[in-house]
Write a structure and sequence with these properties.
Heat Shock Protein 90, Beta-Lactamase, 2 domains, Sig_transdc_His_kin-like_C, kinase, single chain, ATP binding, coiled coil, alpha+beta, histidine kinase, 408 residues
Length: 408
Amino acid sequence: MIAPKNHEHEAERLALLESYAILDTELEEDYDNLVLLASEICGTPISVITLLDKDRQWFKAHHGLDVAETERQYSFCGYTINEPDNLLIIEDARVDERFNGNPVVEDANVVFYAGVTLNGANGLPLGTLCVLDHEPKQLSESQLSALRILSDQVMNLLDLRKKKMELEKANEDLKLANRELDNFAAVAAHDLKSPLNNIITLSNCLEDFYAPKMDDEGKQIIEFIKSSSETLKKLITGLLNYSKSGQFNIDDKTTILLTDLQKTINELFGGQKECTIKVKSNLESIYANKIAVEQILINLIANAVKYNDKPSIEIELEIREQDAFYEFLVKDNGPGIHEDDQEKIFKIFEVISEQDRYGEKGTGIGLATVKKVVEGLGGNISVLSQLGEGATFTFTIKSPIVLTPTMV
């Protein structure tokens, strides 16, 4: 018997095989179907998807064979991966000196073998798709062509599995990076608040005690310090809210009575005498994360108030249930939003209005926070608007699925 030699790029080949993380995984129907089809097409009792590890050949799928692996030194496939045309056919192993004394031939009575290489990146072979028989055999060109096609399908499955695995890892890395970024923003914003409050306090003291002794330029400088500090304070508060907005547990739900929700909204915005807020719904209650829903609505309604240009502000909140979602609509009678800006407004730090109803400029964080919370609850948010005709913000969140008798 002559044992097969290692591939000329064995180290690289083994590293590539390891990158698929496929060895010693469970049997899978997709691979099992391919080996069954290979046996049917080639008329052989045995077919195997073999992956060649350092000292063994391991079978990802096997038909007509009871073992999951054998020693590589006894393998036919160890020869196949070194074939320049990626195909090896042995019509009768009993008369081939390479397999004289090989237990696979003598004990398992494997006489016929045909294998096609499974090639990964740069043509490096991972293993083979092979068919075996207990008697000498010849395959037709159409059977060999089908075997090659099936081997391509095996590689497609392996590559798809690898890409899925890489995508899952990339998603996990991205989630980790986002968490670290949120934590950094929260810590940085929190640490900035204390010295900033000191600046605001000192500037107020400076104005109260020393303003009479200052000229107009000095007073203007103090006013600039105060206004800049207040702007920065709003920005830091917004960043803190944004960093915390992804921390809601989607499963942390409670029953929210819509009468209580309307009461909360009226209490918060009751000081706006020129503002009317109506709540419309056929529902008596919803089952959702109360804190998250309130934060979304408060942000949207506050925006509708701040950027409204009418003497009388009219806001309507409508709540519906659609399939497995609750749908919320917040309508206002404000100036509307230009079509070109309707995507920008949900991006952090994007500000499209020079100033609000009270002469202040926004931070561009509020709607980005709303979007983050909505998507964290498994929903989506959008806006429909025309200039001069107000805007309607629509967002959804998942609602609990109630099983009917026909679904159980």
